[in-house]
Amino acid sequence: MSWENKKTDNGVVLVVDDAIENIMVIEAILEQEYCILSAENGQQAIDTCLGKHPPDLILLDVEMPGLNGFEVCRFLKADPRTVKIPIIYVTSHADKEAEALGFSEGGVDFIPKPIDINVLKARVKTHIHLSKTERFLETKVQQRTEELAQTQAEVLYALGRAGEYKDNETGAHVHRMSRYAKIIASKVTQNRTWLESLLVAAPMHDIGKIGIPDVIMLKEGPLDANEWEIMKTHPQVGDDIIGHQNHSEVMLLAKEIASGHHEKWDGSGYPLGLMGEDIPFSARVVALADVFDALTSKRPYKEAWSVEKAVNCIDESFGQHFDPSLAEPFHQALPEMLDVKEAFKDAVD
Q1: CA distances to 19, 125, 138, 140 from 135, in Å
Q2: Contact at 8 Å (CB) between 250 and 152?
Q3: Angle of helix 281-295 relative to helix 249-260, nearest 10 degrees?
Q4: pLDDT, tens digit (0-9, with 9 covering 90-100), for 258-272
Q5: Quick one: which H or E segment has residue 310?
Q6: What is the pLDDT of residues 272-296, one digit of tens each?
Q7: What pLDDT does 48 receive?
Q8: Most buried one in 10, 205, 214, 240, CB count within 10 A?
Q9: For the whole model, what pTM was predicted?
Q10: Mean pLDDT of the region 48-55
């Protein structure tokens, strides 16, 4: 009978036993309710579980030539592809020591031989139901987690836009800058979770501008010395807005970025005059991404620089403004950054 013609709605059960007559007995008991697969040794069982159609449950003999049942269970529980498959040992030797070992290897139950039909049916039904319920709940939790992560990203993006709202910046700026930062950082680290957190946190870099008076933020001409000193407080204001009670990676990165993205490698930046690696890596990357976008974007008070001119300017600033170790990653990232620049154009470009 082909796989497609077998009934699988109730579940697929793999029966593993070196005695074909034992397999036939179990198959006769269960075949009206489940699709039955069989294996006559441990290696066949492993190959079946790693194949195209893994089972929903395994009925596993313990004493077999070659790999015994405990060894098969240990192997399957060590592989992320098969770790979730419940395993019930079917054995005539279920003493206390064997049971303890079987459970320690990851088995969920024991059924003694000779097999009681009602016990076999009840335990197979129970463990398949539990397994399917667990997978369903895990899927729901994953969906909810993704929804919450998306909501968090949208909220932080909106807050980031609020920080730019009075600064003649556009929504495209935070889209571009945060993606530039992720691309540059990806040439340094392959930590995908951290890179996604950086992408979400980067738009918060100028959140502190919310706290700068409108008379300064909206001034058309150059700022005087006193006004400039007030403007330079926005990283500290951003740090205060984000607060000190955050424990998620995204918010910790947002705090680093908001407070540190105007620091410079040579110590001439603000607000703290941090130098070198005292500046958080996230802030160093965002500083570079932010300046690249500022130079290559048109604003009411300036024309956009060419990419070549902006790159030359930035190259001259490695070791003074920017972390010199980011020079190579920056150049490696440029082709992808230009794709982002094209995808997120300003309306004024």
Answers
A1: 32, 16, 5, 9
A2: yes
A3: 60
A4: 999 999 999 999 999
A5: helix 307-317
A6: 999 999 999 999 999 999 999 999 9
A7: 96
A8: 205
A9: 0.64
A10: 92
- Of 247, 146, 258, the residue nearest 201 (C-alpha): 258
Is 37 in contact with 48 (CB distance < 8 Å)?
Answer: yes
**Residue type (1 letter), 261:** H
Give me the phi and psi of 109, to 5 degrees please. Answer: -165, 165
In terms of Cα–Cα distance, which of 213, 228, 184, 225 is closest to 329?
184
Put residue 11 in one of left, alpha, beta given phi > 0 → left and psi -120 to 50 → alpha. left
**Residue 262 backbone dihedrals phi, psi, to 5 degrees:** -105, 5
Pair of tokens at residue 299: 């604003």
Closest CA to 167 of 206, 225, 221, 223: 206
Nearest CA-CA partner of 249 in 206, 207, 199? 199
Q: Count CB neighbours of 51 within 10 A.
A: 10
Of the options 3.30.479.10, 3.40.50.2300, 3.40.50.620, 3.40.50.2000, the CATH number for the domain spanning 3-138: 3.40.50.2300
Say how far apart CA 317 and CA 292 lie, in whole Å: 12
Closest listed residue to residue 239, CA positions, set 217, 192, 269, 271? 271
How many whole angstroms from its chain centre is CA 172?
Answer: 24
Q: Provide the pLDDT confidence category of residue 95 given band limits of 50, 70 and 90.
A: confident
Which residue ranges does the chain devote to CATH 3.40.50.2300?
3-138
CA distances (Å), origin 33, targets 30, 38, 331: 6, 16, 61
With a CB cutoff of 8 Å and minimum separation 6, the contacts of 79 are 50
Chain position carrying tokens 């154009």: 345
Which residue from 153, 228, 187, 226 is spatially nearest to 337, judged by alpha carbons? Answer: 187
10 CB burial (10 A radius; 0-12, 13-18, 19+): middle
Buried b (16+ CB within 10 A) or exposed e, 311-335: beebeebbeebbbeebbebbeebbe
